[in-house]
Design goal:
Blueprint: H1 2-27, H2 30-41, E1 49-52, H3 58-63, H4 74-77, H5 80-100, E2 104-111, E3 114-122, E4 133-137
Antiparallel strand pairs: 1-2, 2-3, 3-4
Amino acid sequence: MRALLWLSIVALVLAGIGWCIYSLIYTDLEPVARRAFSAAHSCPEERLTARVRLDLDFFAMAFGPAAPAPEPPPEVRADPARLAVWESTRQQSAAGRDTWKDAGQVVEVEGCDRRQLYACFRWAETSTTSNMPLCNPVNPAFLPVTPPAAHGR
């Protein structure tokens, strides 16, 4: 009984340590954005500031804003079975988009008289990748209507 208790405690401690390491490795993408900005703008990293922008939707910054949901065509609307398939497909698309919301971070980097938003994420580990971090500049067409400087610092 006592061995089981100790084994449980050790397992919990190891899980906690594992989660802390996971959090450090997989969530801190600011340095990656800083390096990308530094290289793109020939700006020394010590002159940069970076912060995660939790107010911006990662998916919208990485892939563009979602289009409004269309109405089903009249022939689909008139057929309950087809309408059910149409609605299910639309819901699956929305759910797929929602899974991306926590997949990455939007990082704002500023320095050398420039400011840039980056959509940052890590590739899932596969046989060819190893959770490689990526930060790509946000396409200007995807930027929010309000410029980043207007969001409180």
